[in-house]
TrEMBL record:
A Pfam family hit: LysR_substrate
Stated family: Belongs to the LysR transcriptional regulatory family.
Organism encoding this protein: Streptomyces orinoci (Streptoverticillium orinoci)
KW Transcription regulation (keyword) present: yes
InterPro entries registered for this protein in UniProt: LysR_HTH_N, LysR_subst-bd, WH-like_DNA-bd_sf, WH_DNA-bd_sf
Name of the featured protein: LysR family transcriptional regulator
Domain of life: Bacteria
Species lineage: Bacteria, Bacillati, Actinomycetota, Actinomycetes, Kitasatosporales
């Protein structure tokens, strides 16, 4: 069967909002129309995607899988359509992804001074899938922190990002100048194995409200400074390597030029 991309987008919006009314408003269509389209989509696929109640919408196992697939398919299609339009209009474009707290502006300024005709797009990554924009075609190059899936990618090491302990400003340890990992024994840690938050901002809200401590890269600590949080260096915590990543099958001139510029600029920084 051919996948109906319009219905896939409708389904993904319902799955995101877990509510037909809010999804319909987002899509600018009537709720009964959206409901019919989703039912038709389920019939075409031959499986139930959503469990509907009077108050909410939940995903079935098949629906959860399709939602995860849609998060890759839809951005990839949108990026492909944009590239087609760029080719038609003779536009050169470079899409750069970056992890929270990592600054790529100096490299962009240097590159743009030599290539003013190249359009630049910037794409922030999510911390639990930093390589996703490279995988789905939205970005051609990314400035990231390790670790992530490096298969099919060319990696250029840049430097080290020290790790700091982030805690409420009123925490007893916050008065210290520095910490060791032993100082954190017995503390509730809000790191990936224990609790997956959807954003850096959410993690910092949890920390500020007393729900734990997190080890965060120094670049993130500097970017999200706030008076109710303290950031202390952890002397024996291993740093996180920063790097530039590009797909191994990408060799175009604009990308090579930016990679060379960014490597030199970011290593100096």
């Amino acid at each position: 069967m051919d996948l109906d991309l319009r219905k896939l987008r409708y389904f993904a919006t319902v799955a995101e909002h877990r509510h037909f009314g809010r999804a319909a408003e987002r899509l600018f269509i009537a709720q009964p129309v959206l409901s019919r389209q989703i039912k038709s989509f389920e019939q075409e696929l031959g499986c139930k995607l959503l469990i509907r109640t009077t108050r909410s919408v939940e995903l079935t196992a098949a629906g959860q899988q399709l939602y995860e697939e849609a998060q890759q398919i839809l951005p990839s299609i949108a990026a492909a359509v944009r590239r087609v339009h760029d080719a038609d209009q003779g536009v050169q474009r470079l899409a750069i992804a970056f992890s929270p707290g990592l600054y790529v502006a100096d490299a962009i300024r240097e590159f743009t001074s030599r290539h003013a005709d190249v359009e630049i797009d910037l794409i922030p990554t999510r911390w639990w899938e930093p390589d996703r924009p490279l995988r789905d075609g939205r970005a051609q190059i990314a400035y990231l922190r390790r670790q992530f899936d490096e298969s099919g990618l060319h990696i250029v090491p840049i430097g080290q990002d020290p790790r700091f302990a982030c805690m409420p400003a009123a925490h007893p340890l916050a008065a210290r100048q520095e910490l060791s990992m032993a100082d954190l024994d017995g503390e509730r840690m809000l790191d990936v194995p224990n609790r997956r938050t959807s954003s850096i901002e959410e993690k910092f809200e949890l920390i500020a409200s007393g729900h734990g401590i997190a080890l965060v890269p120094l670049s993130v600590a500097r970017s999200y400074s706030r008076p109710d949080l303290a950031h202390l260096p952890v002397t024996d915590a291993p740093g996180i390597e920063t790097c530039l990543a590009v797909a191994t099958d990408r060799h175009d001139r604009v990308l090579r030029g930016f990679l060379e510029t960014a490597t030199a600029i970011l290593r100096r920084g």
